[in-house]
Design goal:
- By secondary structure, the protein is mainly alpha-helical.
- The chain has one domain (3-303).
- Helix content is 70%, strand content 5%.
- The longest helix has 48 residues, at 127-174.
């Protein structure tokens, strides 16, 4: 079997496993990677960018090397790696749970659930603020947790799947602009930005194309992307969030409360602030984008030119 065909089959099977089973309940490899890199940080840490670069190279390089060794497992290895790195079912389930809690008036429950989606200060958010925070996180993580791994899996197989998840996890752990990580976490944050440049734009295209499924218009999503994405402090989250806002006909952004302080984010899209019904629409659109990205990644893997073996 051609390598590309095996990769495509593995991506499809891994996506099916994620939809059927969700994240592994025990011994999740990503959690193990987090523990290992925390231990590594105790050795590599210093308040310098050079140390952060070394930390990034060692941690990500080890995972990519593991991916090159594992790719000999063919379809099974690709499927297991895809299942491990995808978070699509968990993302959609959490979005629905948030909508259910808000709809029932359980603000305390919604505040307790929000940290599983993002790092906002839930204690200061009302129902509309929680809906907006959840929707913005859903938009960003549709790219980060689902489309991006699939893009890298289609491009580079198992090493791409595992390497991307390592990069994204390190960014979530140390890619902050606080006192401890402003320098040490610089490499993690910049590497994640580069790794998500293509996936975020694939997400934007798919979000715009599938907007009619939730009553939106592709032209509105594309207009919000062109006009608003560059205002966002992230070169990638801005694309995902602005196209989602345009597709849903709502406005995202504004005053944003994090645990480390408050940011005044630029507004994205036109229309009213998001409500609970918009959060449910966003979940449906996210799931459609995930499926479309899987099919596109599998098709690309099959059609790409076969690389000669060394």
């Amino acid at each position: 079997m051609r390598t590309g065909t095996a990769t495509a089959a593995g991506l499809l099977l891994g996506f099916a496993l994620d939809r059927a089973l969700g994240d592994p309940r025990r011994g999740h490899p990503v959690a193990g990677f987090g523990s290992a890199t925390s231990a590594l940080e105790s050795v590599t840490y210093a308040d310098r960018r050079l140390n952060g670069v070394a930390h990034e190279v060692v941690a990500v390089g080890a995972v990519v090397g593991l991916g090159y060794a594992a790719r000999r497992g063919g379809i099974v290895a690709t499927a297991l790696a895809t299942w491990t790195v995808l978070g699509g079912r968990s993302l959609a389930r959490t979005g629905r749970q948030m909508a259910d809690l808000l709809e029932s008036g359980d603000i305390d429950g919604a505040r307790a659930l929000l940290p599983s989606l993002c790092g906002r200060d839930a204690s200061v958010l009302d129902a509309d603020g929680l809906a907006r925070a959840a929707l913005e996180s859903l938009a960003e993580n549709t790219s980060d947790a689902t489309v991006a791994p699939l893009v890298w899996g289609a491009l580079a197989g198992v090493p791409g799947l595992l390497g991307y998840r390592a990069v994204n996890t390190l960014d979530a752990m140390i890619g902050y602009r606080n006192e401890r990580y402003r320098n040490f976490g610089w490499a993690a944050a910049r590497t994640d930005d580069v790794a998500n440049l293509l996936p975020a734009r694939v997400t934007g295209v798919l979000t715009a194309a599938l907007a009619p499924l939730v009553g939106g218009r592709p032209a509105d999503a594309l207009r919000a992307w062109r006009r608003d994405a560059a205002k966002h402090p992230s070169p990638n989250a801005g694309v995902a969030e602005s196209t989602m806002a345009g597709a849903l006909g709502i406005q995202l952004g504004g005053r944003t409360q994090y645990r480390y302080g408050t940011e005044l984010r630029p507004t994205l899209g036109d229309g009213p602030p998001p409500r609970i019904t918009d959060l449910r629409r966003a979940v449906r659109l996210s799931e459609a984008v995930q499926l479309a990205a899987t099919l596109a990644a599998a098709a690309f893997a099959v059609l790409r030119p076969e690389q000669p073996r060394r």
